[in-house]
Amino acid sequence: MLLHQPIDKEGETTMEPILKVEDLRVSFRVRGGEVQAVRGVSFDMNKGEALAIVGESGSGKSVTAQSIMRLIPTPPGTYKAGSIVFEGSDLLKKTEKQMESVRGRDIGMIFQDPMTSLNPTMTIGDQITEVLMRHQNMNKEKANKRAVEMLKLVGIPNPEARVKQYPFEFSGGMRQRAMIAIALSCDPTLLIADEPTTALDVTIQAQILEVMKDMQEKLGTSIILITHDLGIVADMCDKVIVMYAGQVVERGNKYEIFKSPQHPYTQGLLKSLPRLDQKKDEPLIPIDGTPPDMANPPHGCPFAARCPHAMEVCVEEDPFMFTHSDTHESKCWLHAMPE
Amino acid sequence: MANQSNAMLEVDNLSKFFDVGKGKTLKAVNGLSLSIRKGETLGVVGESGCGKSTAGRTIMRLYEPTSGKALYNGQNIYDLKGANLKAFRREMQMVFQDPYASLNPRWTVENIIAEPLDIHGLVASSKERKVAVERLLDKVGLNPSHLTRYPHEFSGGQRQRIGIARALAVNPKFIVADEPISALDVSIQAQVVNLLQNLQRTESLTYLFIAHDLAMVKHISDRIAVMYLGKLVEIADSDDLYADPRHPYTQALLSSIPVPDPDVEATKERIVLRGDLPSPISPPSGCPFRTRCPAATERCAAEVPELRQVGANKAHWAACHYA
């Protein structure tokens, strides 16, 4: 009933992006200073696309995602600069009241830990109908019917009985399915999934990824997937953004990122992963050192201290984005130098 | 089964049950038998609740077993007492998953790493103690001058190195590493795995490596044991296990791992298991995996499959009627 038409590939490129993030800067006040969690992040995505944001803890990937939902507590956080234009209007300029009608209706979000993000004192059904009655003006009866439909859609067996149950009666995988059902119940244009399978076992992870792919196909939802697992990115996403120390260091489609990574950090990440087809006794190639302290980010390129190719210019000046193709860019001085 | 003459540790029909009240029993480890050769790495994989951590802890004798034996160099470790037990504890050490929770935040690095030295009376003076800690810090790739610092001054990867230094302090022969890298970032995981592999060579260590990241387990292990609901379902040389998994659970587990290569992902056929893990408090009759197994038959409900040799390689065993 709320299903979108499938999107044809031709139309996609000429369309306005549904989300355009430009020069986003988010900081947090801490005792004795300021942590610059996101430092000038820009990207955009089209309708129906699945975009991965990849990075390690502290890279700013979750803060970026929470900023799109305007979930950063202010204070201690502040949106220092930038814009997040979603379907034509800047979310950073909206009032809290206006944001309330965006959250859950236009943008849905699922979190890493389904136990702490579901309300333990409400039935799963009530948690879905709450959203529907608020955003879609449905009456209780209609909302109940829809809740059962949603649970069925995400593959929860016996949904008529399950809507009356509480989160503790659900297993980890089932809770995450319920989270997806809640997030998708209003048929949002954009779904943000922040490490949706990190807390789950691999066989359950495979189920959840299947549900998400299925939903994307059936509903045409655009997805931002935040993860540190490059395997999931290769499986799920079209476009990839690699973040490091609060900045986007590389962006490209998944083939560009996996087959010809241009930033030494992306290259390092891919090399440090063990491969199932790898010969034994071939040592892994780790990235030496640790990420910089974001209360005190370095002057030049934040990766310079760990980079095997670091040059003088890298510690002096922060590089800008160099273009490798229409879709592929990386932020590294190596590409400004003649070979 | 699989009795090798050069086995360093032989686990024989080991069970560990927990009483969970109301007359119910959780069979965390249920009749586990395996052996570990000197100098090898045995990986143990499985999902949460499969009993892999309980198995590791029972083998360390952090838990007393419900039944069964574990022979360490021919001696049943559950019979050890007094000085013999203390000597055994020196030989076997553990590295824990969470480098935040397993180091005392109020102690300096020196005191954390030297605690086992003190307990076993291995250092005579405070000078000797300091030198020993410095040597250990150096061994795990940390700056020896950091011994007066506290755990919060270190990153996750560095804390895990401290945990490893503490385990190495008493010159152990055998290390149980329970998910030693799963709390670490991807770029740091490789650092710690390389460290563990180098130490294995230089210190002649034997590892029991417990993890759920199968790609990493394959990388580090000589052999791999797959557990499901307290039971060993398959054990094989790691290359064999990946090339020719025989148990349907192993097959599903391997196919579930997303591979960081879009070409592989585009063509791969993934076996998606239906349903959830049954509760280990009331496991299914017969084969524990039958409720999720795509190939289950009536026989699987009636009869518990015995672990038996499968395939050409003698070291490859699986517990499935149809493997």
From TrEMBL, chain B:
Signal peptide: none annotated. The keyword Transport applies. GO terms for molecular function: ATP binding; ATP hydrolysis activity. GO terms for biological process: peptide transport; transmembrane transport. It holds the Pfam family ABC_tran. Gene3D superfamilies: P-loop containing nucleotide triphosphate hydrolases. Keywords: ATP-binding, Nucleotide-binding, Transport. CDD domains: ABC_NikE_OppD_transporters. Residues 9-254 form the ABC transporter domain. Belongs to the ABC transporter superfamily. This is Oligopeptide ABC transporter ATP-binding protein OppF. It comes from Paenibacillus herberti.
